[in-house]
Amino acid sequence: MTEIDKIIFKNSVVMLLLFTFTNASKGLRNLTLSVYPEVIRRGQSAQLHCNYEVFDVPLYSVKWYRGIFEFYRYTPFEHPPGKTFFFNTGIKVDLSVSNASHVTLRNVDFNLNGNVSCEVTTESPSFYTATATSVLQVVEEYEWVNVMQAKRTQKMWKKKFTEEIAHAACDTVEPLQRFIEV
């Protein structure tokens, strides 16, 4: 490789790295979707939280889906920025408290059980797009009590198992220490 080829190669690598790292700071990152509460009683409200980070590019839109159907869209440069789409599913979006990061659903019913998604898109020229999905679970009152009891029981078993493992570890360490000391 000649000296000129080496210089061209080094400059190309530097330019590639510079381009990569300057674009890495732009865009859309850390997209997650949370449903509160985790288990929703029929007739109650639910909040869907779409958490994301947008860097050096403006937000274009946040779209919310139940399955494949869009039910809410937030577009900051339109008036009004929040819009609902009804496709005969009974989704009731509370526009007064919904925005670019969360949506409040009122009077949820069983037909909302299933996957919900938020899709975040940034403005041109890149139009970065990412989607997060979570499960919305609607139950009757008695089912809700059973689900919550099951979650508590699961936590109790986990705690008990952890304590037993710690106790077993202590039982093992003491004889080993005596063995080593002798």
Automatic annotation (TrEMBL):
Signal peptide: none annotated. Residues 29-134 form the Ig-like domain. InterPro entries: Ig-like_dom (IPR007110), Ig-like_dom_sf (IPR036179), Ig-like_fold (IPR013783), Ig_sub (IPR003599). This is Ig-like domain-containing protein. It comes from Chironomus riparius. The lineage of its organism: Eukaryota, Metazoa, Ecdysozoa, Arthropoda, Hexapoda.
